[in-house]
Amino acid sequence: MSAVMWDRFQFGFTVTFHYLFPQLTMGLALIIVLFKWLALRHGDPKLNDAARFFARLFGLNFVMGVVTGIPLEFQFGTNWAGFADRSGGVVGMTLAMEGMFAFFAESAFLGLFLFGEERLGQRKHLMSAVMVFAGSWLSGYFIVATNAFMQHPVGYAMMADGRLRLAHPLIYLFNRWAFWEYAHTMSAAVITGAFAVSSVAAWWILSASFPKHGISCLKVVIPLAFAACLLQLFPTGDRQGKLVARYQPGALAGMEGRFKTESNADLIIIGQPDPSRRRLENPIAVPRVLSYLAYGSFGHKVTGLDDVPGADQPDNVVLLYYAYHIMVGLGTLFIAIMGAAAWLLLRRRLESCQPMLWLLMLAFPFPFIATTAGWLSAELGRQPWVVWGVQRTANSASPAVSSGDAAFTSLGFLGLYSVLFVLFLFLLGRELRHGPVERATGREEAQ
Amino acid sequence: MTAFWFGALSLMLAIYVVLDGFDIGAAILHLFVARSDPERRSVLQAIGPYWDGNEVWLLAAGGVLVFAFPRAYAAAFAGFYLPLMLVLWILIARGMAMEVRSRDTSPLWRSFWDAVLALASVGLAILLGAAFANVIRGVGLAGRWFSTPLFTNFLVSRRPGVLDWYTVLVGIFTAIALAVHGGLFLACKTAEPVASRSREAAVRLLPWQALLAVLVTAATIRVQPVLFGAMLRRPLAWPLEFIAIAAPAYAYAQARRRHDLWAFLASCAFLACMLAAGCAGLYPHLLISRVSPVWDINAGAAAAGSISLLSGLWWWPASFVLVTIYFANLFRQFRGRVATSDDSGHY
Fold first, then answer.
1. Alpha-carbon gap, residue A97 to A94, rounded angstroms
2. CA B159 to CA B291: how far, in whole Å?
3. Phi, psi torsion values for A127, nearest 5 degrees
4. How many CB atoms are located within 10 Å of the residue A332 CB?
């Protein structure tokens, strides 16, 4: 493998592993703020217990996010010096702002939030929860804005030596692409958090350990999850797709598995792309809908991969196609699950509907899969560019770093993160065994 | 303009060393000054609320470096590839050790993480010192990029490794200086007997710190004459030097009188002035080439476009004020000593 391949593998692996944690903490931050606020307003101690319980889970996931996030800030320079050198003058702005505005807010209030409840009192504690929430959501924006520039570069100018400089800071910061990508990413984070909370709540009800706490939690998170699932599809997912269709036709062709340019293009639901024979096997499709979804009219032409120059085509069409279809498929499924749960909640039959509770309890891994597939779609679709149409991935790695170095560190990260993940699961199990209220066990009372 | 950003970066690095320095130092010492489990927990309670925020100064400085001097960031980070990766892995191990240590009650589990925390902190202090020493000593830049082996023959040559006698010396000096710093912090923040033991450890190490400071200064003059010449030409930076020389003696005297806060503040001044003096001597160099001055990467040439730097003048000071408020609030909320018997905390 070449150095660039190792670099790509390393960044892909470390960023995918890292993002398992922030998506949960960003979603949980909002839910914890809601729980605390509702507990203060309505005086429901069960929600305050739940807020405290999920704060412990939040703390564990947050630490994992912090320690796995540090390498990403370094890797732009260590492994992608070509990118940092040429585009750093632009993307450096959001990277620096993320540090100054977001990381400090998160870290300075996290300690207060995690172990300052008795010191601070309820109102200040809620304030610190709000600050952690604001910091983490702000951090999300700066990173998405950085990625949006790579997907759809705006607000920059090229200097004589080929390096980019910022020409319009505000246009760069408020890139239209960033707005929709952020909305899409954050509703996904809320879905992840809400699925995790409803999974724990369903478990409390099914195991009859803390049924009242479980129901209190479900009443808050099911409506939230349903709203986020709907937003995920429309408008945010829809608008993102239209932007891709407009600015990255090669990426759209890869995602949809289209090799030939067609008007009245079908929307492929299921099928297996065969890149060697340039066609899709066993397709199940909805006629003409893709043209409408991508361009707003049924007769509109949709570009196929055959009309994209070879050097500008995504280099892993198969993975891109599956990642995109897994994301869309799961997203549709989430609407169905949460829609049914919301309807049962409305009819007051949720706590007695065993199958639904089982489904909620077991569904928590799927949002993680969907978000990972979503990022894979975005990033594989951007290939072969690191900054779309401006800088190629092949010219972005560090010239002075050998493939041996990149392989060594990639293996190091693989090993280290495997250990971290085992450790995380062990600690997660410990935290879950704690309930939302400390209770003396029967055995202790007997003695 | 580039001078402003060079200064901003130096300021952020100085704050990083002063703040993260005390939690790294406390973690270096904690195996010796805290012996029982409640004592060790009290050390973690003392640094626990701060370590993450302190570490962000390093990340934020990295972010500002990409923003202001992308060319220098790219060359330096790719050039110091392996040592930076080691720093990353150590930072990961350290953060995990701090946060998971008290989540299980098994004595074996806790001893293991205590050892990881101490070792990672010693390693981090040495590596950070060596990294700064590399920037001062200069690197084998001959072209736009360079790559540094981890070590060669440990001599300061035209193309030295990351570790040679000079950078190792600075690394050891850093580890001792941070241990003193952490000891004085614990003397302020913990209850007896940890506070007395920490104070004593700092008092014992302080003479060594002063001796090494003299040695490092002499070695720096020998290894990098450019820096010393620049220092002589910049009288504005001289007070930094005088404070750095006087601070350890003052810290020693105050610590012996048990004026812990004054001793700790003197240690803060020492670290900040040492680093600031180094940066003042470096200016305008971001990376010095040991091959030929032609290849030096200077602030002016490495800077991002001027609109970028101008826009930064709007948001950077504002964010700096906010961060100052956050930290003042954090230190105020957790003021006072940590009781050893306190079971309510997070650690």
1. 5
2. 7
3. -60, -45
4. 13
What's the pLDDT score for residue A439? 55
Q: Say whether B63 and A96 touch across the interface (CB within 8 A).
A: yes
Contact B81 A412 (CB under 8 A): no
Burial class (CB in 10 A: 0-12, 13-18, 19+), B261: exposed
Return the residue matching tokens 């954090």: B330
CA-CA distance, A67 to A417, in Å (whole number)?
Answer: 10
* Statement: residue A414 has pLDDT above 60: yes
Cβ–Cβ < 8 Å for A402, A3: yes
Chain B residues in contact with A416 by the CB 8 A cut-off are 89, 92
Going from the C-alpha of B318 to that of each of A89, A97, A100, A249, the distances in angstroms are: 21, 11, 9, 41
Closest-CA residue to A199 (of A59, A344, A359, A334): A359
Q: Give the count of alpha carbons within 13 A of B73, CB side only.
A: 34
3-state secondary structure of B36: coil
φ, ψ at A207 (rounded to 5°): -85, 0
Nearest Cα of chain B lies from the Cα of A253 at a distance, in angstroms, of 34
List pLDDT tens digits, range B281-292.
Answer: 888 888 888 888
pLDDT of A442 above 50: no
Report how far apart, in Å, the C-alpha atoms of B301 and of each of A83, B68, B295, B297, B306 are: 17, 11, 11, 7, 12
Question: How many CB pairs below 8 A link A and B?
Answer: 222
Q: Which residues of A touch B103 (CB under 8 A)?
A: 60, 427, 430-431
- Looking up tokens 């993320």 gives A98
Q: How far apart are CA B313 and CA B300, in angstroms?
A: 17
- Cβ proximity of A267 and A285 under 8 Å: yes
Distance CA B247, CA B257 (A): 15
Q: How many CB atoms lie within 10 A of CB A38?
A: 18
Q: One-letter amino acid identity for A150?
A: M
Q: A81 vs B77: CB contact, 8 Å cut-off?
A: yes
pLDDT in tens, A5-44: 999 999 999 999 999 999 999 999 999 999 999 999 998 8
B96·A71 Cβ contact <8 A: no
Rounded to 5°, the CA angle A159-A165-A168 comes to: 125
Q: Is A6 exposed, middle or buried (0-12, 13-18, 19+ CB in 10 A)?
A: buried
Q: CB distance A89–B81 less than 8 Å?
A: no
pTM for the predicted model, two decimal places: 0.93
Please list every residue in chain A whose beta carbon sits closer than 8 Å to the beta carbon of residue B326. 104-105, 108-109
Chain B residue numbers touching A107 (CB-CB < 8 A): 52-53, 55-56
pLDDT bin (cut points 50, 70, 90) of residue A329 is very high
Residues of A in contact with B116 (CB under 8 A): none
